[in-house]
Design a protein that fits this description.
This protein is of the alpha+beta class. It is 43% helix and 15% strand. The chain starts with a helix and ends with a helix. The model has no long low-confidence stretch (mean pLDDT 87).
């Protein structure tokens, strides 16, 4: 599987053609790499919202990630993205 990741030619330019909104959310307890990823994605997706949640790590259970605040962000994104 690792060889496939190394050999696959991922075309980032295809992301620029996305016609839907994107939410990239990550937690403050995750590695700083998540902020770097958000910056890269922000340059590629034409309509992206980035949100950093304080006190959250990406390996927590879903009920700790999908809080009312997170749900409200998704609903706002979906309603404005229609």
């Amino acid at each position: 599987m690792l060889r496939v990741f190394e050999s696959y030619s991922f075309d980032r330019e295809r992301l620029r053609g996305c016609a839907f909104p994107v939410l990239y959310a990550y937690g403050s307890l995750s590695h700083d790499e998540q902020a770097l990823k958000a910056g890269i994605l922000a340059q590629l997706f034409p309509d992206i919202r980035v949100r950093r949640f304080d006190g959250v790590h990406h390996f927590v259970p879903p009920e700790e990630i999908y809080t009312p605040e997170h749900t409200a962000l998704l609903l706002a994104l979906w309603w404005t993205g229609l």
